[in-house]
């Protein structure tokens, strides 16, 4: 195998700088169109237009990882002090077409023949080379076009009929270019194009591989994304380890389900009752990926009821300039579009999802993944934009939540977060609540202590630690509060409605209230009673029968009368359904 070496490719790019774009793109595209038809475009018109120019640009001027996704075409003819120039996909039907038409209208270089039925045909004037050279005095060497266009061609694999008499790899490459484009037409050679080959080009040794990543980066391509070297089980295990190290009770298989959904291109939606750990899991997973894969911090977007696309993407100011939101500036216009980025949409169905996320939803199914930005600009949604959304069910909260449409659900993986408290209770009803209570206090103690270790202690953290340190094992709680806590929790978890809403988050709130009480049985029972009245009663739902065992369970608490009055108000309705107090 023999490919043009990197130094030769870079030298060809430097030599093309300053050439007229029609000499580098349009005329070669027209010559190739004629060669494919066996016609001389200086004497016969051939079907031609931006279609052939687009194909030439796509084949020879598209480099990997352009700095801007909507400018994929590298333009070696127009480098500047700021670096190489890149052209948009509309360039053939825009800039190039305008330049061709301008010359045609003046009777120079091109001749256009309008066709009423079918495509217009084009040809070159007899003096096209001299006419274009007079407009931009820059002769283009055939060898530079051959090296640039043929940078990925194995000269050893070229057909012998093309390279007859060319033993040197450079000569073989030039022979390929002449066969493909047939530039020896009209006055082109000797005016616009030159057969000269610099002596140092002859000294360049061809290599065994085509242009590599480093050369493309020198030309202006973005560096490749860092590669995840772990396989899926290894990455899953690493992320799980980081999440569980934060004392999160992780449901089995959850991390793997999310990763696979993301790799398929889905948005992941976590649904569940308040307290099932949706938001905590999403944030812990985002931070775990940040640490494990050296990513940017996850972008957290809290959704409000009035959220729309202007809030999420941005809007156009009255003066016509764009005002971009953080999702646009940090994701759609990122300087590292090939790197993964985790985006967390908190409570994403508080607003109608389609009013703010529609363009992103469409882009997840679009091969080009383009999103229209304010002021008419387009941006590409990076492939590894990993969106994870949290929400509560519309069925549970119809007064505050919006329905999610079928198209949105089609583009999503919807995971119902398990009630870990309920699952642990089912597995061991005798000890689950008390075991989890101590685990939750220890986890809170570790979180507060870690802030101090990072010199980031909050103003009240010393007070928090002084109380949490007194409850490091179960027997630090009085027997009376242990018994009452178990009775209250079990009475709720034994009902279907209670099993749905009594979550780890609520248990945490209750046991922390107890932990912050004085270490006496009476004080702990008061704290438990207050939690039942202030926290648990307001979560109750279902029928009167669903609270019968609960009324027995809290009967011995110091504020049982207060709790009774609250329940009586919830039962004061026309049916046997419990009424919400708020």
What features would you describe in this structure?
By secondary structure, the protein is α/β, with parallel strands linked by helices. A 5-stranded parallel β-sheet has the order 9-12-15-8-16, sandwiched between helices. Strands 1-5-4 form a 3-stranded antiparallel β-sheet. Strands 2-3 form a two-stranded antiparallel ribbon. Strand 10 (314-316) and strand 11 (322-324) form a beta hairpin. Helix 2 packs across helix 3 (50-60), helix 10 packs across helix 12 (278-293) and helix 18 (432-453) packs antiparallel against helix 19 (461-468). The longest helix is centred in the C-terminal third of the chain and has 22 residues, at 432-453.
Keywords:
582 residues; alpha/beta; five-stranded parallel β-sheet; three-stranded antiparallel β-sheet; 25 helices; 16 strands; 46% helix
- Strand percentage lies at 5-15%
- Binned, the helix content reads 40-55%
In terms of structural class, how would the helical and strand content be classed?
alpha/beta
**Major sheet:** 5 strands, parallel
Task: Say how many strands there are.
Answer: 16
Record the SSE blueprint.
Blueprint: H1 6-16, H2 21-37, E1 46-47, H3 50-60, E2 73-80, E3 83-87, H4 92-105, E4 110-113, E5 121-124, H5 128-135, E6 140-141, H6 142-149, H7 169-181, E7 193-194, H8 199-203, H9 213-219, H10 232-244, H11 254-264, E8 267-271, H12 278-293, E9 299-302, H13 309-312, E10 314-316, E11 322-324, H14 326-332, E12 341-346, H15 353-365, E13 370-372, E14 378-380, E15 385-391, H16 406-410, E16 412-416, H17 420-427, H18 432-453, H19 461-468, H20 479-493, H21 496-501, H22 504-515, H23 521-536, H24 548-553, H25 560-570
Parallel strand pairs: 6-7, 8-15, 8-16, 9-12, 12-15
Antiparallel strand pairs: 1-5, 2-3, 4-5, 10-11, 13-14
């Amino acid at each position: 195998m023999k490919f043009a070496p990197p130094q030769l490719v870079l030298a060809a790019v430097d030599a093309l700088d300053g050439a007229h774009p029609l000499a580098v793109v349009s005329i070669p595209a027209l010559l190739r169109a004629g060669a494919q038809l066996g016609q001389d475009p200086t004497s016969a018109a051939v079907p031609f237009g931006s279609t052939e120019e687009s194909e030439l640009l796509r084949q020879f001027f598209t480099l990997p990882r352009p700095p801007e996704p909507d400018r994929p075409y590298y333009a070696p003819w127009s480098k500047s002090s700021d670096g190489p120039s890149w052209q948009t996909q509309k360039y053939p039907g825009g800039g190039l077409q305008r330049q061709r038409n301008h010359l045609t209208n003046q009777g120079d270089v091109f001749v256009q023949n309008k066709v009423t039925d079918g495509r217009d045909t084009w040809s070159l004037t007899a003096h096209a080379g001299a006419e274009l050279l007079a407009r931009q005095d820059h002769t283009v060497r055939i060898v530079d076009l051959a090296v640039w266009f043929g940078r990925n061609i194995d000269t050893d694999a070229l057909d012998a009929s093309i390279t007859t008499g060319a033993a040197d790899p450079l000569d073989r490459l030039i022979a390929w270019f002449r066969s493909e484009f047939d530039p020896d037409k009209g006055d082109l050679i000797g005016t616009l194009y030159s057969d000269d080959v610099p002596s140092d080009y002859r000294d360049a040794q061809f290599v065994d591989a085509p242009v590599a990543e480093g050369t493309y980066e020198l030309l202006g391509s973005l560096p490749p994304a860092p590669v995840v070297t772990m396989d899926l089980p290894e990455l899953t295990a690493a992320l799980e380890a980081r999440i569980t190290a934060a004392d999160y009770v992780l449901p089995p298989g959850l991390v793997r389900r999310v990763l696979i959904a993301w790799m398929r291109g889905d948005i992941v939606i976590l649904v569940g009752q308040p307290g099932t750990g949706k938001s905590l899991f999403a944030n812990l997973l985002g931070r775990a990926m940040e640490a494990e894969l050296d990513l940017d911090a996850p972008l957290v977007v809290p959704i409000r009821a009035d959220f729309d696309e202007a809030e999420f993407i941005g809007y156009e100011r009255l003066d016509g300039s764009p005002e971009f939101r953080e999702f646009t500036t940090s994701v759609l216009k990122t300087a590292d579009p090939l790197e993964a980025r985790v985006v967390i949409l908190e409570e994403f169905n508080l607003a109608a999802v389609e009013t703010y996320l529609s363009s992103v939803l469409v882009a997840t199914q679009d091969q080009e993944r383009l999103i229209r930005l304010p002021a008419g600009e387009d941006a590409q949604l990076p492939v590894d934009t990993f969106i994870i959304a949290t929400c509560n069910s519309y069925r549970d909260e119809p007064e505050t939540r919006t329905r999610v449409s079928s198209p949105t659900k089609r583009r999503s993986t919807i995971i119902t977060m398990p009630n870990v408290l309920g699952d642990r209770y089912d597995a061991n009803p005798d000890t689950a609540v008390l075991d989890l209570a101590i685990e939750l206090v220890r986890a809170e103690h570790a979180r507060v202590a870690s802030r101090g270790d990072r010199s980031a202690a909050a103003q009240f953290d010393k007070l928090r630690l002084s109380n949490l340190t007194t409850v490091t094992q179960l027997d630090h709680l009085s027997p009376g509060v242990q018994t009452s806590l178990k009775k209250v929790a079990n009475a709720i978890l034994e009902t279907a409605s209670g099993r749905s809403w009594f979550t780890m988050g609520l248990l945490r709130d209750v046991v922390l209230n107890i932990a912050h009480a004085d270490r006496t049985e009476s004080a702990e029972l008061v704290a438990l009673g207050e939690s039942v009245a202030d926290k648990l009663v307001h979560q109750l739902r279902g029928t009167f029968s669903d609270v019968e065992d609960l009324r027995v369970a809290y009967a011995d608490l110091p504020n049982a009368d207060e709790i009774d009055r609250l329940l009586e108000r919830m039962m004061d309705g026309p049916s046997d359904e419990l009424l919400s107090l708020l």
